[in-house]
Amino acid sequence: MNRLKPRLAALVRRSKAPTRQRTDANLYPDWRALLAADWARWTDARDKARGGPRILVATSMGGHPEMTPVESLVAVALTLRGAEVDFLLCDEFLPACMHASYRRLGENQEAFVAQGPAGSLCRACWPQGKATYEPLGLRVLRYSEWVTSVELEQASHLAQTIDAAAIPGYRLDGLAIGEHALAGALRYFAKGTLDDEPYGEPILRRYFRASLLSAFAIRRLLATRGYECAVFNHGIYVPQGLIGEVARQSGVRVVNWIVAYRKRSFIFSHDDTYHHTLMTEPVSAWETIPWSEALDEEVMSYLTSRWHGSRDWIYFHKTPQEDLDQIAAATGIDFSKPLVTLLTNVMWDAQLHYPANAFPNMLDWVLQTISYFSRRPDLQLAIRVHPAELSGTIPSRQPILAEIHRAFPTLPPNIFLIGPESSISTYVLSLAADTVIIYGTKTGVEVTSFGVPTLVAGEAWIRGKGVTIDALSAEDYFRQLDRLPLGYRMDEATQQRARKYAFHFFFRRMIPLGMVEQQEGWPRFRIALSGLDDLLPGCDPGLDVICDGILTGAPFVYPAETLIATAPIPVHA
Fold it and tell me: Most CB within 10 Å of its CB: which of 58, 86, 348, 533?
C-alpha cells in the first residue's frame, strides 16, 4: 500500500480544479430573438438555400431541452451553408417514445399502458418543438402525415397479437423493429429485464407498435422527400433507432449525435449510434497522431480532472474518498495483497447486440466472475458498482447488488462489494489493482492511460485498440483470469498508445461548440449568440467539423492536436 501512496497523492492534487457555472432559466432557444438584428440576412440565406442538399433533422421529441436546442442550432448552420433543411417532429402520434420513463411518469403505470405519452408528456413536447422550429421558416414535418390508415391498423393488430417472446427478434423487411422496441422498454423501466414488471409486456407491446409506426412513417417520408442525410440524436431506442434502420436501408446517410462528457462538447458519428461506431472505428483514425509532451500533459491533466469532474458536465462524485487507508478500513481490502477491480455499467443502458461480447449480458458476466473468484482465495476481487445506478439521468431500477445477493447470499471473504452510493474513488480503486476487468464501461479508456492492465469481456470502447486484453469467448475470459495476478504495469509504448486513444476519444471525437454556454442545473447548457456571424463557416471550428461531416461525409474529428504545441517525445518499448 505504501508504494502506491505518493503516486496516488500526486494524482489527487492534480485532479482538484475549481469550476464555475452560469444560471439561466431559458430551456429552449428563441431564434427570433437570437437573430433579431440579423433576421433579414437569415431569411435571405434561408430562401437561397432552397434547392440545396436536402437534410432531414429528425428531432422527433421536440420537448427535449438538450436535443432541440442543438438540432435547431445545427439546422441554422447547415442552412447558412446552402442546405435545405426539414425538421421532423412527433405530433402526439407515437404510442411510446424515448421521452417516457417510469421515473417521469411515477407509479401509475396503468395510465401509460392505456394512454401512452399522450396522457401527459405530449401536451408539452409537441408544442415546444413546434414553437422552437416554426419561427425559423424551415419546413416542419409531422409523423402523422406519413402513416396511412391501413398501416395504423396493421401496427395495432400485430402489436396486440404477436407472441411477446417474439418481439425482441422481430424484423420487418430486414428492419430490426423488435431490438429497438425492447431497448426502448428497458430504458423506460430502467432495468435490464422486464421479467418481474407487472406492466412489462403491455408496455413492450406499446413500444413495439411505436417502432412499427416509426418505420412506416420514415420509409414513406424518405421515399417522398429524397434526403441526402438524416441527422438525429441517440440513434437507438424509439423512434430514433428506427429512423436509422430505415435510412440505412434506403441509402440515406445517417448522422447520430449525443451530448459528450466534456463540458460544451458533443459526439457526432456517421452511419450509426456512437455506441457502435466508437467500437468499429479503425485505429488508423488516431494511432498516427504525432505525439508530444504537450499532448501527453493535456490528456493526463484532463483524465485526472475526471476524478472530480471539474472539466465535465457528466460526473458522479465531487468529493470522492481517495485515501487508501480509509478505503481499506471501510471495505476490508488488503492493498498489500493482489487485487482485481471489476467495474460495472448500468444494466439497462443501450442494450444492443454486440457480436464481440464474451457473455450474453453484463449480469451473467458479473455472476460468473464472482463464481470464479470464489475459487481463487489468493486473489481479492473488488466489485465497484457504477454510481450512475443511483445518480444517472435515469436511475436504475434493477440494482446489481440485489442480483448479486440473490445469487450469492453469502460471499467469500476475498470478494468486496462497493455500492453505487459509495464515495470511494473508482480511479483510486483501479490504480491500486493488479488488473481491472470491465464489460462495457468507458473507464477502460482512462485506466489504461495510467498503465493498468485491463481485461475486456464486453463492448467497451477501449476494446480492439491494441491496449487491452480482449476476451474472445467465456472460455478465453477464464483463461485470462487464470493468468492473474500479472504483477506488472503496461509498458511505456502501450501506455502511450492508450493515451493517444484517450486523447482522440475525449478531445477529437468530443467536438466543442463555442456558442453553447454552460449553465447550472438542467438542461446543462443554452445557446448563446452575438449574431448570425457566429454560425458562418470559419467562425467556430467545432461547428465547421459538424457541418462538413453532415454535408460531405467528412470524419467527425476535431483537430485538437493542431491547437496544442507539439514537441515529439521518444517511445521506449
Answer: 58
